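In practice, a research group might receive sequence data for several interacting partners and want a quick structural hypothesis before committing to experiments. The following worked case mirrors that situation: the sequences arrive first, and a predicted assembly follows.
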Amino acid sequence: MKTSIIKKMREKGLKLTPQRLAIIEVLVDKTHLHPGASLIYREAMKKVGSLSLSTVYSTLNEFSRHGIIKMLEFDKMENRYEGNIMEHINLVCKGCNKIMDYKVPVSIDLKEVAKKARFWVTDTRLEYHGYCQECKGK
Amino acid sequence: MKTSIIKKMREKGLKLTPQRLAIIEVLVDKTHLHPGASLIYREAMKKVGSLSLSTVYSTLNEFSRHGIIKMLEFDKMENRYEGNIMEHINLVCKGCNKIMDYKVPVSIDLKEVAKKARFWVTDTRLEYHGYCQECKGK
DNA sequence: TTTGTAATTAAGAATCATTCCAGTTTACAA
DNA sequence: TTGTAAACTGGAATGATTCTTAATTACAAA
Ligand SMILES: [Mn+2]
Ligand SMILES: [Mn+2]
Ligand SMILES: [Zn+2]
Ligand SMILES: [Zn+2]
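A structural hypothesis for the assembly, expressed as tokens:
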């Protein structure tokens, strides 16, 4: 996954800096956690001496704008990021803010959306909110 | 829709105030716009003399907490609200921030999610982001 | 109808994730 | 090696949302 991200960066003409490399590594290592900017900042900081939070934010924005990673936007909670850009449902626990992947059994044809609703889809956001096993029993 | 919202409020033991009535009316009238708090505030203000933005926020939070309305959370954009709580996909235009409804052709069985992923879904958030007819041609 | 009180509202201050800014450094193509 | 656009930095600014505290009010019970 790390290699494919770097490859995509090259394709898009994005420069590879030590800061970006560290951010990518955290994103890959912790992708199952769907980490937020502050965790990514803390972890990447351990890898590269010099890094500012502004850089983390602008890098994550840049990457998600290019479709290299996916930004999951929230209101009550820090935004979260993931390297897995395959279409899937994110299960978001309201108790502990954990986010888990759920394989989509069916997929809607985006061409049909364009035809029927006159809307051209660039990315999808599928979330189920609720409670995980641990949080279910209060 | 207005009647059913008020009925649900009664069921939940929520009091019906002039402020809440105005907010509900705006929510019903403008539901297709998926209005944000500031629009709801402006429009509801026209109906009742006295209304504060704090009240709008706390009311919308209260209602969505009770599942009476649905809050659509964004990061770059004001949160939006809708009275239509039936499961459907929201088409969010990245050009003009318009939000349109799209009827879901298929629905995933939530019991299967509980069984397979050990996750209990309370609400769903299905969005397609992209461009509407007007914004497509830049 | 009147009363008691828990719920609701108001106004402004506080929060905090995120963006902006302006100056400095750096990756990498030539 | 050099030139330059891109990236980085740290601090200030932003802005939607929440918090706080005191005043007001809906409505159940008397
Ligand atoms: Mn995921
Ligand atoms: Mn909708
Ligand atoms: Zn949980
Ligand atoms: Zn549009």
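Before designing any experiment, note the following. The beta strands of chain A are 70-72, 80-82, 89-93, 99-102, 119-132. Residues 15-17, 36-38, 53-54, 57-58, 61, 78-79 of chain A lie near DNA strand C (CB under 10 Å from a C1').
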